[in-house]
Structure formats: C-alpha cells, structure tokens
Amino acid sequence: MPRYPETEAVRIQTPRTGEKEHATPLFLTSSFVYDSAEDMVAAFADESLKLNIYSRFSNPTVDEFVQKVCVLEGAEDGIATATGMAAIFSTFMTFLSKGDHILSASAVFGSTHAILTKYLPKWGIQHTYFSMTDPGSIEGLIRPETKMLYLETPSNPGLDIIDIAYLAGICRARGVLLVVDNCFATPVVQRPIPLGADIVIHSATKFMDGQGRVLGGVVVGRKELIEPLYLFVRNTGPSMSPFNAWVLSKSLETLYIRMERHAASALRIATVLDEHPAITRVRYPFLSSHPAYEVAIRQMKNGGGIVTCELKGGIEAGKRFLNRLQMLSITNNLGDSRSIAAHPASTTHSKLTEEERLAVGITHGLIRISVGLEHPEDILADILQALAVP
Ligand SMILES: *Cc1c(COP(=O)(O)O)cnc(C)c1O
After folding, report:
1. Which of 89, 91, 108, 111 to mutate to test the pocket of ligand 1 (most atoms within 8 A of CB)?
2. For the chain, which terminal residue's Cβ has fewer other Cβ atoms within 10 angstroms, N or C?
3. pTM for the structure as a whole
4. Are the CB atoms for 60 and 29 separated by under 8 Å?
C-alpha cells in the first residue's frame, strides 16, 4: 500500500545491520570490502548498478538521505552533493556543453549568479537573464541553442514567484530542461516535479537540515537524467559526506512538522508587519498583496518560512534594526530553528552596484527574516521592539 511521503520521510532506512539498531546507522567508511577477487570484478563491471565500492561513488547512509528526498519530491532518482552549490554546478556541468545557452532567472542565489557570469563563459556557455515578474517574455528568449531554463521560486531574497506548470509547458514544447532550485519552499511546501519540472535542486543546508549544523546538496529527477549526474559526481568528487547525510536524513523525519510551524509563524508575523508604520512593504507568498499571490496559493501548500519587509529609512534603518534585535540572530544562514534577520544591501549583496541590486529587488531597506521555531509571539515581540522609534 503506498504511504504518504511524510510517513516515508520518517520510516525509510537502510537495511538494519546484524546489531538490529532502531535508529539509522551511520556508515562512516570510505570503502567497502569484497569476499573475493571475483566479487570485486563484478562491483566494477557495471557503473550503473551503483554498488558500494567507495564512498565518493555511493554510501548507504547517503543513499538513505537521497531516497527520502526522492519520495518527498515525487522523483525517480537522485544524487547528493557536498553543498547546494556543488549540486548546482554539477547539474550545469553535466547538461551544458560548449556553445549551449542557459536561460536563468535574474533573481538567483549570489553564487549561482557567479557561476553563470564568471565560470560558464570560460567553457563557452552563455546565459541570458529573464525577469521573474515578466513570465510572458520568457518564451521569446529561448534560442535554438538554449538547453536549460533555471530558476528559484520563491526567489532569494525577493520572494518572487513564478508558475512552474506554465514554464514546464513551454520547456516541454521547446525541448529545454526545466531546473528548479526548490530550497526556499522544500518539498513539503511545493513539489516542482509533479508540476512538470525535469530536475529539482536543493541546498540541504537550509530548511532540510533546519538546525544550522551541516552543509549539503541534492539533485533529483528522472532516472535517465540522474545517471549522467551520478557519473559526474562519482568521477569529479563533490560527493556528500556520510556524516552529513546521517544528520540530514534524521532531519527529514521532522521536515513536515517544522515547515508547518515555520509557515504558520511566518504568516502571523507577515500579517502584523503589514500594518506597521515603520514598514512600507511586506512580502510573503501567502499575503494577498503578493504580486503572484494567485500562483502561490495554487502551487504552494503554505507560504514557507521567509518574510521580507522594506523599512522606511533605507540602509541606516536596516542597520539600526539589526543592532536593536535582542533575540533574532544576525547571520548568513536561513531555514534554521533559530530566527534570523539579514540586511542584504549592507552585507551579502553589498558588492553589487545599486543598479544590479535594484534589478533583483534588493532595495536599501530590505530586511529578510527567516522565521524560526521559537514561539511566534516571542519572535514578533523582538521584531516589534527593534522597529520601535527610539
Ligand atoms: C544557500 C543556497 C544555495 C547554496 O547552497 P550551499 O549549501 O550554501 O552551497 C543555493 N540556492 C539557494 C536558494 C540557497 O538559499
């Protein structure tokens, strides 16, 4: 009988060892032994069997984590990587060749932007940016050599949202791979593969771990797409460590309940901030004021755990807000059990020109709040006291 994905996220585990342990074992081993020379020959004979040979190729603890993500995303197969960026870079390197073109949302993670602009051109791979707020323009940007459409929805940090099923229709008709970075939503909130995406990527570092402990990445999709990715990771080495996989696999057991709490608290905070006189604009996918609210409620189960707001008073107001916080952490991560506030214009995106920042929606007063698992009223109280005019 098929079970719910949230049940599988709790119950999937590598076969028990002879010790009959209940919790999932951690296979901290770099290699695996053979009973005979013949067994060793057989293990190497067919790469597609993914037999346990060496933990750069595969490892039972890493496989368990990947299997869980596949069930959660509704995907056939997957591969784990050391970080989210390793997942993104491996995907680009596997599917793009010299002369190919990638069409990417302009609002993508900073390091993804760096891969597109600084590294891919070295191998003769060109990119064009499209605007998340102008989906009607995308089809016209597809060229004969366009191989991939790449995006994040909701995007970081602007929380722009785009209709995945609509883009999947265009990509299918034009023979373009649709790749979605689903890091902000997680599969609890949004499942791009059933909506028609070919490949889904995660930085498992964020909500998947959810407690700010380990780095990780994962890519899932159809078997025939994961096969060349597996060989790329196996041969070039950005593999996930078994220890990180063990931490992440345990974390997936609580992903459903965590995301529900993150989202309920985020909606409560967004609703209150929406009325606050020190704030000019609040953005949250499940606020009806979100420009793509109709798309958000169709393709997302809840609004997720990130809220952004625009402070009156620009850069100085942003810095003052961070300095007045008593509980929320000022740190570069997100998707943690601890609530976090960030001011992109003075920190993560300070190297961009003002024009570049504004083009991706990072205004001077933009604050990004990653709503944690503390009591929502405590999170709200800290934000409100930090906003109060002295
Ligand atoms: C953090 C992040 C990444 C990069 O992941 P790492 O695990 O830090 O390498 C990629 N995409 C998004 C949307 C992210 O938030």
Report:
1. 111
2. N
3. 0.95
4. no
